Amino acid sequence: MNAAAAIGELTGREVVEVRRLAGGDTASAFAARLSDGTEVFAKTSPAMPGAVEAEAAGLRWLAEPGVVPVPEVRGSNADWLVIEHVPESAPTRRAAEQLGAGLARLHAAGAPAFGSAPPGGPADAWIGLAPMRNEPTDDWPTFYARHRVEPYVRSARDSGALDDSTARLVDQVCAELDRLVPDEPPARLHGDLWSGNVHWSDDGAWLIDPAAHGGHRETDLAMLHLFGCPQLDRVIAAYEEVTPLAAGWRERIGLHQLFPLLVHTVLFGGGYARQVAQAARNALR
């Protein structure tokens, strides 16, 4: 099915105009204008089974009142996702503070378990181009080691992207997670909260492209630190005004970054393996 036909079927509106958008490494993306004047964004990921269903379920789960805004899902099926279009603008201090406070409230909305998928979402989801398993687990250290770190260590080591000494270092971190990370209840996470998935608009910061699941709230904040985020100090300050972070959270950033760094090592190799080693060493200090 072509884009115009899929968008029309899912929204129940005639598509007046549709154009393909550049960029994106995981999906084909389109902007469309409907007969009632509404602007929408659509994407399809045929090479990634379950990806659209996971994203749609994640967006619906994150759409709690009074938290960080997410685009409304206008329609979805196994192949296509159609969401509202949100115009883009420059980051502002006010938007950064709203993002921090909203993230704190989103995390506090909670999840049934560590590793739980969004309601209606598949257990087998994706983060970027990498498969990601959501499996409800009694405690965060077991979930993080078993379903977020160890599968990518194996894959990176098997491909030669990660050497044995670094793999052993990461294994040591996993063995000591109970000691390294404070016990907290499951938080409702965006799950892939690098700066590119924060969409700045005139009415604040929006969250897009989630890999949502139940996890540790420090993970989302560590992702914001991974590639930088505009006005991040203001985001964190506003977060802590709503819900203070546990002592030593900055020293645990590298620990929480092991997962995305390992994903990047599997997908892209290069210098990410060195960053994995450094993050593991920092976690064990």
Automatic annotation (TrEMBL):
UniProt cross-references to InterPro entries, sorted A to Z: Fructo-/Ketosamine-3-kinase, Kinase-like_dom_sf
GO MF terms, alphabetically ordered: kinase activity
Transmembrane segments: none
Keywords carried by this UniProt record: Kinase, Transferase
The organism's place on the tree of life at top rank: Bacteria
Family of this protein: Belongs to the fructosamine kinase family.
UniProt protein name: Fructosamine kinase family protein
Organism: Saccharopolyspora halophila
